[in-house]
Amino acid sequence: MAEVLETVSGRGGELVLRRDGAEFEVIENGMFLMDTRNGESERLLVTGAADRLASGARVLIGGLGVGFSLRAALDHRTVSEVVVVEREPAVISWNRTGPLREVHGGALDDPRVTVVEADLLEWLRTTSETFDALCLDIDNGPEWTVTEGNASLYAASGLERLSQLLRPDGVLAVWSAGAAPGFTARLRERFAEVDVVEIPVPRGEPDVVWFARVSLP
Fold it and tell me: Are 16 and 4 in contact (CB under 8 A)?
C-alpha cells in the first residue's frame, strides 16, 4: 500500500507525493500525474531532440516531473544549457532537496541548469528567450490535459508561438500518454519535418513522443 509522504496545496490543486515500495508517485487532484517506475519515454523526449542538434544546444524542458528528462539532457553530449519551467513549488522542492532528488542524482545542482518557477503557458507568452529544443511534458497528452487552459498550447496558435521560440533547425518535442491524431495533423501543417515515435509500456497503449523541426536540415 502506498505511503503518503506529503500533501500540499499547489497552483493546480491538491498535490500528493507518495511512496510505493521503492518508487515515488505524484498525484494531482486525485489524478495520477507521474511516477519513477520507468521513464523511458520521458528520457527519449530529450535525447531524441538532442540527437537532432549540434553541440552547444540550449534546451527548454517544460515540466520538471521526477527529473528523468532533466537528467537525460545533462548527460547528452550536445546539451550545454537547460532551462526548466515548473509551476509547482512543491515539485521543485521534492526534486531539489526532497525524496525525488535521489532519482536523478541531484541534477538541479548542476550549474548548467536554471529553474524557473512559473506556469509554462504564461511564461511562453512573454519570454524573449530562444532555444534549440523545446521539450514539453506538462500534461498526460494534447488531448488529456492536466489543466483545461493547457489545451491552447497544442492548438494551431500555440504551435505558432512555440515555433517563434525555436532557433533555426530547432526541434519541438512533446510527450503524451497516448496517440493524438489531430495534434499530429496540426504539427504537419506548421512544421517541415514531423516524426511520431511510440514507446511500448507494460500496460495500456504506448506512450508517444513527437519531434517536429522548424526547417529541414
Answer: yes
